[in-house]
């Protein structure tokens, strides 16, 4: 349930077309917050109130699950989130006042404005480019939504994602860049990576292109919590973090098609196999585990240009009668060895 759905339920309530259950929940929420008087807010102020309320509800949901994972409180129920739509969009009741910054006396010189958020939903069919306040770039995929502050703070750079986006982050060691999804928190200083975390998707994925990122799992409202959350992991280029909230399993894997990170000709003329494997390892940044002593007397003459990493390994294995497998983002190369001359 995203903010567009929340606006829809409120609009139906205002038009008198919502269900009896939705109407009851909306009115109960409004009564609970108090409606003794209305706040006279500008459209911009109402948007700030709505976003602040949305953030508070999301934080309360996560906090409740972390404190008592077995208790699926009313905040985790879709119907209750529909009820919260009334508060998020109306921005009228007395309860909204607690989320609005208290008025400060005017003083001479510059003043600090309340944090304002930009919500960008990509409802089209093409990827949309977005430039963030720190000049970081985002490629937002169709059916995705990004929320970010108009101005980043002094200590961190948080953004909120539903769906899929590619990030190219400006390096700033003093302000970590943080991508929040319902399932994961991805923290970086400066790098490029893709996050995919659509609503209803069983697994969330963070794929690193350059640099390194730290991926931490988060509690998910509809997950069956049976054990402690897995520890955070660091993900390097050509690796991806895959997190299953239901199974509470966070794994580091190689991406489907590792890209070449360093220049290499991949033409070998009667060269030792360990040299070939080392060249592949350095070019792709992928650790390859092999028995250097067993393969010391094995030499090959190969031209491996215009092939993927796995294509190169396939040719090498066919030549030697060897095999390989991927384990924890590493390649384990199994070769029979060669007799010495």
From TrEMBL:
Residue stretches making up the FecR protein domain: 125-214
Pfam family, one: FecR
Native source organism of the sequence: Hymenobacter tibetensis
Record domain Protein FecR C-terminal: where: 266-331
Protein name: FecR domain-containing protein
Highest taxon above the source species: Bacteria
């Amino acid at each position: 349930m995203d903010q567009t759905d929340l606006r829809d339920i409120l609009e139906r309530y205002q038009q008198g077309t919502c269900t009896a259950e939705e109407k009851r929940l909306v009115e109960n929420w409004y009564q609970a917050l108090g409606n003794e008087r209305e706040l006279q807010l500008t459209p911009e102020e109402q948007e700030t109130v709505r976003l602040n309320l949305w953030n508070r509800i999301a934080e309360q949901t996560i906090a409740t699950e972390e404190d008592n994972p077995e208790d699926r409180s009313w905040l985790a129920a879709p119907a209750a989130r529909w009820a919260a739509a009334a508060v998020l969009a109306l921005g009228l009741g007395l309860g909204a006042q607690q989320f609005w910054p208290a008025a400060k006396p005017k003083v001479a010189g510059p003043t600090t404005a309340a944090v304002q958020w930009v919500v960008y939903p990509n409802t089209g069919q093409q990827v949309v480019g977005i430039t963030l306040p720190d000049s970081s770039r985002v490629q937002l995929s169709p059916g995705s939504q990004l929320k970010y502050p108009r101005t980043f703070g002094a200590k961190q750079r948080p953004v909120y994602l539903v769906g899929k986006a590619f990030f190219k982050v400006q390096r700033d060691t003093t302000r970590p860049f943080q991508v929040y999804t319902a399932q994961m928190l991805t923290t970086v200083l400066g790098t490029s990576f893709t996050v995919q975390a659509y609503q209803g998707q069983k697994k969330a994925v963070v794929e690193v292109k350059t640099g390194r990122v730290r991926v931490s799992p988060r509690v998910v409202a509809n997950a069956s919590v049976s054990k402690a959350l897995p520890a955070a992991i660091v993900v390097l280029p050509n690796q991806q973090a895959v997190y299953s909230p239901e199974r509470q399993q966070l794994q580091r894997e190689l991406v489907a098609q590792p890209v070449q990170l360093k220049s290499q000709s991949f033409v070998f003329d009667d060269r030792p196999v360990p040299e070939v494997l080392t060249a592949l390892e350095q070019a792709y940044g992928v650790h390859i585990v092999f028995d250097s002593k067993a393969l010391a007397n094995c030499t090959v003459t190969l031209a491996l240009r215009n092939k993927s990493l796995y294509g190169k390994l396939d040719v090498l294995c066919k030549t030697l009668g060897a095999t390989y497998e991927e384990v924890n983002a590493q390649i384990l190369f199994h070769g029979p060895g060669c007799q010495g001359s």
